[in-house]
């Protein structure tokens, strides 16, 4: 069996000295398609912040993408984050720039300088999300669903070992939400591992995966939602 991409073993996460999540133990394996569900305030964002090392792990053992979160140095954190892809509810794109600029910006910020390579990479990720024709369009001219596709393309740029999506359909109507989940499934079938925080149960039920529930200050794997 391949090494897990994420492994939490009896982890407690403190925020301002108060345990927000306690005794969390779970693993994600390469190729998993996993959901994180739970009410607002149950700790989904807290878990994500721990995964990308914004919150320290002081109790229990945790590793993500080959980094030991108990011992990670501040200077290593950007390298951990480069192995992760992030997708947000509100897309977090540069709305007054075009698609190409939104994507080249990320590659340039992570040390890519070869223009031909940058272009190839951009074409590749846009093809994956079905948005090749939008390369020169300004973000604010795109629909919500199209903007979310661009944000997924951005998340794919550095070939992440894990995509973390935080309420990715929160601002989308049911039909478009379904299309976004369908895209996630396709990417998963091509080998991408995903952890999707969502309370959009009617959509996620149509695209089954593993389910982890945040409840009572901890996280448990459940059979379905
Ligand atoms: N900076 C902080 N300091 C102390 N407690 C915090 C902090 N941020 C969040 N919390 C608490 O941690 C708990 C979990 O919050 P979290 O934001 O992780 O929930 P969530 O499931 O992501 O909710 P939502 O879906 O509304 O974002 C809440 O009780 C919240 O009040």
From TrEMBL:
Output the superkingdom of the source species. Answer: Bacteria
Name the coiled-coil region(s): none
- Recorded topology in the membrane: Peripheral membrane protein
> Would the keyword Cell membrane be found if you checked this record's keyword annotation?
yes
Q: Which residues form the ABC transporter domain?
A: 6-225
Q: Gene3D superfamilies of this UniProt entry?
A: P-loop containing nucleotide triphosphate hydrolases
InterPro entries, per the entry: AAA+_ATPase (IPR003593), ABC_transporter-like_ATP-bd (IPR003439), ABC_transporter-like_CS (IPR017871), MetN_ABC_transporter-like (IPR050086), P-loop_NTPase (IPR027417)
- Keywords for the protein's UniProt record, in alphabetical order: ATP-binding, Cell membrane, Membrane, Nucleotide-binding, Transport
Record-level GO cellular component terms: plasma membrane
Name where it's found.
Answer: Cell membrane
Indicate where this protein is primarily found. membrane
Q: One Pfam family this chain carries?
A: ABC_tran
GO MF assignments: ATP binding; ATP hydrolysis activity
What the record says about family reads: Belongs to the ABC transporter superfamily.
Name listed for the protein in its UniProt record = ATP-binding cassette domain-containing protein
Give the organism's phylogenetic lineage.
Bacteria, Pseudomonadati, Bacteroidota, Cytophagia, Cytophagales
């Amino acid at each position: 069996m391949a090494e897990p991409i994420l492994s939490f073993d009896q982890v407690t996460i403190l925020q301002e000295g108060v345990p927000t999540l306690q005794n969390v133990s779970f693993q994600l394996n390469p190729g998993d398609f996993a959901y994180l569900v739970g009410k607002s305030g149950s700790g989904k964002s807290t878990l994500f912040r721990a995964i990308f090392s914004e919150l320290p792990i002081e109790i229990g053992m945790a590793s993500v993408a080959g980094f030991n979160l108990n011992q990670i140095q501040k200077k290593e954190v950007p390298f951990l984050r480069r192995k992760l892809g992030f997708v947000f509810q509100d897309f977090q794109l540069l709305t007054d720039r075009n698609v190409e600029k939104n994507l080249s910006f990320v590659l340039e910020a992570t040390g890519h300088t070869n223009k031909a390579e940058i272009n190839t990479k951009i074409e590749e990720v846009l093809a994956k999300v079905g948005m090749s024709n939008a390369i020169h369009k300004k973000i604010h001219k795109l629909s919500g669903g199209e903007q979310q596709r661009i944000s997924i393309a951005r998340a794919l740029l550095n070939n992440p070992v894990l995509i973390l999506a935080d309420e990715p359909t929160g601002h989308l109507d049911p039909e478009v939400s379904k299309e976004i989940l369908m895209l996630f499934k396709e990417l998963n079938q091509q080998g991408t591992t995903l952890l999707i925080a969502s309370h959009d149960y009617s959509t996620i039920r149509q695209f089954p995966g593993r389910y982890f529930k945040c409840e009572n200050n901890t996280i448990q794997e459940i059979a379905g939602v």
